[in-house]
Predict the 3D structure of the following.
Amino acid sequence: MASFDDGTVVIAFDLYGTILDEQSIAEKLAEYIGQDQAKAVAGLWRRYQTESTWRLNSMKKYLPLSTVTIRALKRALADSSTSLEQTAIDSLMEAYDSLHTFPDVGSALDRLSSNSKYNAVVFSNGTQTMVSNSVYHSPDLKPHSSVFKQIIVVGECEKFKPATEVYELLAKKVGKEHNMSQVWLVSGNPFDIVGARNMGMQAAWVDRAGKGWTDELIEGDAGKPTLIASDLGDLIDAIQKRTAGPLVQEGG
């Protein structure tokens, strides 16, 4: 376990939909099913993947995200009245480990690279293999991989976000189980934001669509982000501004 409970601030980055643009898989899909259909299938693929993790949580079952992702792809293809040979599916899954980053990611991560007060980690539903491949081998993300001090995945507790156990795992892995307010989750996924806030963490939502926060499932501060920005770099700046002063230890 990497212990950061030393006055540092942990910034935990969600991977899929926050750093990596899952819609970019449409480029690879287009090689097999054409440009017109690829974008729609990519959207269904992401939707079925996410829905499947929630369903598994509800049924108290667990499958690695790699398995969930393959099955979600096959369902998305079937619902679009198409199918692919196994070699094509294998190629798509390989491409999934090299998704493009969003345009604002590189410069945002560079802002953290020389600031020792902040410990950046990746916190993902993905498997260790999936996430490691993306962070260390993806052409877009590899140049910035040294920013991340740790990769934390949910497989150890066999739950998916937003189950409480995954945020407890995050806090334990970074040595902040007694100071969860010193952990900042950065995510583009509202369900992830609410999951972190429910556990007493700070949460910064990157609202790239610029539509504002509309999730009203949970009332009060626990149901909304600590910070919102439409650009990841602006969000990092806002976190640094918010945490510029000395930290106050909870219970102290």
Q: What stands out?
A: The longest strand covers residues 118-124.
